[in-house]
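Hey, I'm writing a tutorial for new members on how sequence and structure tokens pair up, and I'd like a real worked example in the thread rather than a made-up one. If someone can provide the structure for the chain below, I'll link this post from the tutorial.
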Amino acid sequence: MAKTKEVQVKLIKVKELSFSCTDIVNDLDYNFIEKDLHIEIGFNFQIKKEVNEFIIGALIRYLLKKDEILKYENQTFFSVLNIDQVVASNNEKINIKDEFLLSLLSVVIGTTRGMMIKNTMGKKINEFPLPILNPKELLNKIKEKKIIPTHNKRV
């Protein structure tokens, strides 16, 4: 039986790919926005085994009714020592160990939330940060290949 090697993960960088936000909500009532605000979240994954890199792309869309009022996209780069222990890929599919992906999704979600808050400072939409999300639920949705609609609730 082959001995498993220790996997070590390091956050390398976060790259913002796009950000757009309309000012349409600045004049709207908080309760009106909260009632009709929907958030869509999507992820994609890239592996670069030759340099031990794993990249998670995140796409966040805020929709007011059906109109896009915010779009944010980034990529989070991780260095993964012994990446073969947690990620296997062929030409068409990437297989990722759940516990590994759960850890990275937690980092990506928190980092993305913080960057979105920074980008929306001074705008009404800043009152609606990306909600706290359960990475296990996200993982299940990713496995089902579904976009995850969620509602933002003020606490």
